[in-house]
Recover the amino acids of this structure.
């Protein structure tokens, strides 16, 4: 009898471990890109992502399976504030960070204030602004917006940009083998088997092995890496000597919090749809906003970037059909543990971007499919004028502006072009407005302005 119990416990432990590792790997690709581009520390970013997720887990009463990773919405502002002309850990870098972390702290404060407002006005008033005809297309956009950017940045740019040394066939075959591995494992594995629980993790492994064989894995990041983050912790936290209120940094960062608030609501709606639980009510959207805000504040204390709810992990929930929040909590602990090893971050950075690109195709496609499911299951009536207008205009605005934004990035990356391609983006000053946030705002306004059809 004891042997049966031990076997069962072992299987449960192994399944939980696999699911947790999978959640961690799903967020790694995007999470480490932000510090790479913004000139921040990858190990610190992993640690703060883990800490933020742990905070979120407990604030939301251990009920919402959400991982918090680096937010791309703040990336242009952080790049402008820090710049790549300041070596990581240098005095100049620490001085710039002294102003940035205060600005990041205030972005978290915006979330907390908004959570208090939501608590005061009641969740039903918030929910009334987010019926299926609003949330469905927003979730579709959430997935579809990321696919063109992933294909460009993780696959095409590796061989299309001037000076690129890779071959197109290597990038595309790596991406396709990763993608097909995930599809085959997901579709043909037996229910409740190890393979059924770990298609993404195994897809990453297969794609990485293939990339090794064809020679597109770069081991250079490992050669000069520290072993543990504590070896350079003094320089990474040296910004405490230079803490100050930087008005420019605050003005650049804080307004973006109102943009990411929209994304937060869309992500929580997507998670509610996937898990078939109403997280707006239990534990409450005010709790999820509070958890996100506190996580951002905690990140600022260690010099990590602002965080946001991650769609990649929502896709993992869809594929594995396992919605246990504890798995995300354990993934957060793994991120903290591995984040303390600078060498781990260096090893992760050797994963070819084509592998990440191949996995992302199915991850983000799954998110969009969840939006379609919401429209179908909640019987949004596209035959009705109001539903038709809200859904169609929201999709057109989000996907249209998203396509222009990617086109801007592509043109900007091609050195043969001298034109400033930012005119293709929606910008206020130097701040780029997310197509997802703008589409969400359009959907909310249309839903409020257009009257309900009168019954005969």
């Amino acid at each position: 009898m004891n042997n049966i119990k031990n076997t069962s416990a072992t299987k449960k432990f192994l399944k939980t471990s696999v699911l947790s590792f999978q959640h961690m790997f799903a967020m790694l690709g995007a999470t480490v890109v932000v510090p790479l581009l913004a000139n921040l520390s990858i190990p610190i970013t992993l640690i703060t992502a883990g800490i933020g997720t742990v905070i979120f887990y407990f604030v939301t009463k251990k009920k919402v399976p959400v991982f918090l990773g680096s937010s791309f919405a703040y990336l242009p502002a952080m790049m402008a504030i820090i710049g790549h002309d300041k070596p990581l850990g240098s005095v100049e870098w620490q001085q710039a960070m002294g102003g940035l972390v205060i600005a990041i702290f205030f972005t978290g404060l915006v979330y907390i204030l908004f959570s208090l407002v939501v608590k005061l006005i009641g969740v039903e008033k918030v929910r009334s602004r987010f019926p299926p005809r609003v949330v469905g297309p927003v979730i579709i956009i959430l997935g579809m917006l990321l696919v063109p950017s992933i294909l460009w940045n993780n696959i095409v740019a590796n061989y299309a940009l001037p000076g690129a040394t890779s071959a197109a066939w290597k990038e595309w075959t790596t991406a396709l083998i990763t993608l097909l591995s995930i599809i085959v494992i997901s579709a043909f594995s037996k229910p409740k088997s190890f393979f059924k629980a770990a298609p993404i993790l195994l897809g990453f492994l297969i794609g990485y092995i293939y990339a090794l064989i064809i020679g597109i894995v770069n081991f250079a990041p490992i050669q000069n890496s520290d072993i543990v983050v504590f070896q350079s912790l003094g320089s990474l936290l040296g910004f405490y000597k230079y803490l100050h209120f930087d008005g420019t940094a605050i003005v650049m960062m804080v307004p973006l919090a109102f943009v990411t608030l929209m994304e937060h609501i869309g992500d929580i709606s997507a998670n509610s749809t996937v898990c078939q639980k109403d997280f707006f009510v239990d534990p409450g959207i005010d709790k999820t906003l509070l958890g996100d805000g506190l996580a951002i504040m905690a990140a600022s204390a260690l010099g990590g970037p602002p965080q946001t709810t991650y769609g990649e992990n929502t896709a993992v929930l869809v594929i594995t059909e396992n919605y246990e929040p504890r798995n995300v909590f354990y993934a957060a602990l793994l991120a903290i543990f591995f984040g303390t090893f600078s060498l781990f971050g260096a090893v992760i950075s050797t994963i070819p971007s084509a592998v990440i690109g191949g996995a992302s195709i199915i991850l983000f496609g799954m998110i969009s499919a969840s939006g379609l499911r919401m429209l179908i299951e909640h019987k949004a009536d596209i035959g009705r004028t109001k539903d038709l207008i809200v859904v169609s205009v929201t999709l057109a605005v989000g996907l249209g502006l998203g396509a222009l934004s990617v086109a801007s990035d592509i043109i900007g990356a091609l050195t043969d072009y001298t034109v400033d391609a930012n005119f293709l983006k929606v910008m206020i000053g130097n701040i780029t407005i997310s197509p997802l946030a703008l589409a969400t705002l359009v959907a909310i306004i249309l839903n409020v302005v257009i009257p309900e059809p009168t019954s005969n």
